Amino acid sequence: MPLLTSFLAWVKGLNPTTAPHGRNYGCPFGRLVCYDCAILNGMGTLELDDPMHMEKFNHDCSWDLQVDDSNLNKMRPQNLDFFLVLDLEGKVEILEFPVVMIDAKTMEVVDFFHRFVRPSLMSEQRINEYIEGKYGKFGVDGVWHDTAIPFTDVLEQFEDWLTQHQLWGKHSGGFLNKAAFVTCGNWDLKTKVPQQCKASKLKLPSYFMEWINLKDVYLNFYNRRATGMMTMMKELCIPSLGSHHLGFDDTKNISRILQRMLTDGAVISITARRKLDRLDEVDFLFKNRIR
């Protein structure tokens, strides 16, 4: 495995690149087998240059936005420094936990975090059936089985990632530091994360107490009701990248919607916040919102 070892060393030494406005607002890592994060986790068995694999999947983490320099004049100051675009996969338990970190001022992708998640309450037979149905059609079921880890481990690694970027402190706790999650709907953080924490016998982490539902911001900014990601992309004439319902591909597409809204002049602010004395209850901060 010397080739893989040297590749991992190269990945760890990468620094984000600065892309000119109006050209490329993508990931500094380029073609890096995004949702095949077996490589990034150092746990994988996939060969990067497998011709059948590369023919079937485009793992490009970069994307172009056709934004004229004149449109950048519409951009408004944001109250946050970073957006963490999150789109979970898995109805019974969480199967995929992808996050794209976007700089609120430059719109550039700073980093990304991705883990496949192994359910804690399902039998191996049910897991195999579930993963075959969910990921088999995309050809990444083998990657899932090779790399999926328990949700408890995912959150521990995610907290290390947040701490590395100074967005949260393991010892200090509290809300995120000048950052917020961005989701396409309330389900991910209002419903699914608390359910998974209960299944995994975890206390709900403090950084999951508030979030931005991009559909609510979209409704109030454009005065158009969008039922989901694909509707927003169609209305904004943004072509879809990758495969819908692959978590990392969906986070890329939601990130592109977010970037477009920023260039159009939207202020992206918190839309939902948990009541600290009753964590099962949520205050929705926008009067005009998607229900």
TrEMBL record:
<protein>
    <recommendedName>
        <fullName>Exonuclease domain-containing protein</fullName>
    </recommendedName>
</protein>
<dbReference type="GO" id="GO:0003676">
    <property type="term" value="F:nucleic acid binding"/>
</dbReference>
<keyword id="KW-0269">Exonuclease</keyword>
<dbReference type="InterPro" id="IPR013520">
    <property type="entry name" value="Ribonucl_H"/>
</dbReference>
<keyword id="KW-0540">Nuclease</keyword>
<dbReference type="GO" id="GO:0000175">
    <property type="term" value="F:3'-5'-RNA exonuclease activity"/>
</dbReference>
<dbReference type="InterPro" id="IPR047201">
    <property type="entry name" value="ERI-1_3'hExo-like"/>
</dbReference>
<dbReference type="InterPro" id="IPR012337">
    <property type="entry name" value="RNaseH-like_sf"/>
</dbReference>
<dbReference type="GO" id="GO:0035194">
    <property type="term" value="P:regulatory ncRNA-mediated post-transcriptional gene silencing"/>
</dbReference>
<dbReference type="InterPro" id="IPR051274">
    <property type="entry name" value="3-5_Exoribonuclease"/>
</dbReference>
<dbReference type="GO" id="GO:0016891">
    <property type="term" value="F:RNA endonuclease activity producing 5'-phosphomonoesters, hydrolytic mechanism"/>
</dbReference>
<keyword id="KW-0378">Hydrolase</keyword>
<dbReference type="InterPro" id="IPR036397">
    <property type="entry name" value="RNaseH_sf"/>
</dbReference>
<dbReference type="Pfam" id="PF00929">
    <property type="entry name" value="RNase_T"/>
</dbReference>
<feature type="domain" description="Exonuclease">
    <location>
        <begin position="82"/>
        <end position="267"/>
    </location>
</feature>
